[in-house]
Amino acid sequence: MSESYAIQALFGENRSEFVDHVPHCVELGIRCLHVGPRQATLMVPYRGELVGDPTRGVVFGGVVTTLLDQAGGVATLCSLPELVSIATVDLRIDYLRAARPGRDLYGHAECIRRTRSVAFVRGQAWDEDREDPFAICIGTFMLGANASEHPLARAMAGQGE
Amino acid sequence: MSASQDLADRIPYARFLGLRVERDRNGLVCVLPFRTQIVGNARLPAVHGGVVGAFLELTALLGLLDQSDGSGIPKPINFSVDYLRSARATDTFARAGIVKLGRRIANVRVFAYQEDPDKPVAAGIGNFRL
């Protein structure tokens, strides 16, 4: 059975619409590399300011939280039959190993189940090889978190023109 | 400058966030100064959930460093964040409590709040390898 998604028109590669209305994504230079049905892949470029352990040059784990929270949020949006605002309920990250110093960090999230009010998401982050993640995550997102119009509604309207 | 602020200033990402470390009779309080660049939802506006999570993890780390000899930075094994309210456009505070300080692993609980300490905006718990 094929499902229809509210923002199907925005699925594809390099979709800046998903991050350029988020000030902190702009500050970190996060790029949205790919979005598709129930899933998203994002990237945060390496920079020295994001390091947590200066002796090893490893990016602070919390930056991975931002990357995977954003990826999980986008994956959730990509699962919706109607565009509503969302909010993170919880997010747990396991740090399987240290990320390699100097490498851009990639994050992929997938919505594995969606009810009317909650989306369940899992994801992983890697530096060189997607099959060799340095972190995995599981999270939940609340749907219809607030009444305001989602910024993507404007991007969608732009698609129709 | 306090020893704990000095520790925070050794972590580039803590400097990037402008993290301040204060101390009162109940222990360390970390402060995440509000800046428009840490916003996640511009309409509310609310601080990005990732920054809130990172701030909790930093507070846990500094709480651990405060209880240790400061040699070597504990490595996170995992960290879990519950988002309880949106963190609005104002400074956020956080306190860490060490649930267990073992020989190899420590378990740390953290709460973040804004105006009212009884209304936490987020709670975190994590395990760190010492």
> What is the first-to-last residue Cα distance of chain A?
30 Å
Largest interface: A-B, 40 and 40 residues
Q: Remind me, CATH topology of chain B? A: Thiol Ester Dehydrase, Chain A
Tell me the CATH superfamily of chain B. Answer: Hotdog Thioesterase
Q: Tell the overall outline of chain A.
A: globular
Annotation, overall tally of beta strands of chain B: 8
Question: Rg of chain A to the nearest angstrom?
Answer: 16 Å
> What's the story with the biggest beta sheet of chain B?
6 strands, antiparallel
> Numbering strands along the chain, what is their spatial order in the largest sheet of chain B?
1-2-6-7-8-5
Structural class based on helices, strands and sheet pairing of chain A: alpha+beta
Task: Give a count of the beta strands of chain A, DSSP E runs of length 2 or more.
Answer: 9
Distance between the termini of chain B: 26 Å
Helix content of chain A: 10-25%
Taken as a percent bin, the fraction of beta residues of chain A is 35-45%
Order of helices and strands of chain B: HHEEEEHEEEE
List the helices and strands and how they pair.
The complex is a heterodimer of chains A (161) and B (130).
Chain A: E1 12-13, H1 23-28, E2 31-36, E3 39-44, E4 51-53, E5 58-59, H2 61-77, E6 86-95, E7 105-114, E8 118-126, E9 135-143, H3 152-159
Antiparallel strand pairs in A: 1-2, 2-3, 3-7, 4-5, 6-9, 7-8, 8-9
Chain B: H1 3-9, H2 12-17, E1 20-24, E2 27-32, E3 39-41, E4 46-47, H3 49-66, E5 75-83, E6 92-101, E7 105-113, E8 120-129
Antiparallel strand pairs in B: 1-2, 2-6, 3-4, 5-8, 6-7, 7-8
Question: Any overview of this molecule?
Answer:
The complex is a heterodimer of chains A (161) and B (130). Chain A is α+β, with helices and mostly antiparallel strands. In chain A, 19% of the residues lie in helices and 35% in strands. In chain A, strands 1-2-3-7-8-9-6 form a seven-stranded antiparallel beta sheet, covered by helices on one side. The two termini of chain A are 30 Å apart. Chain B has 130 residues and is α+β, with helices and mostly antiparallel strands. Chain B has one domain (3-129): Hotdog Thioesterase (Thiol Ester Dehydrase, Chain A). In chain B, 24% of the residues lie in helices and 42% in strands. A six-stranded antiparallel beta sheet of chain B has the order 1-2-6-7-8-5. In chain B, strands 3-4 form a two-stranded antiparallel ribbon. Chain B is globular. At the A-B interface, helix 1, strand 4, helix 2 and strand 6 of A face helix 2, strand 3, helix 3 and strand 5 of B.
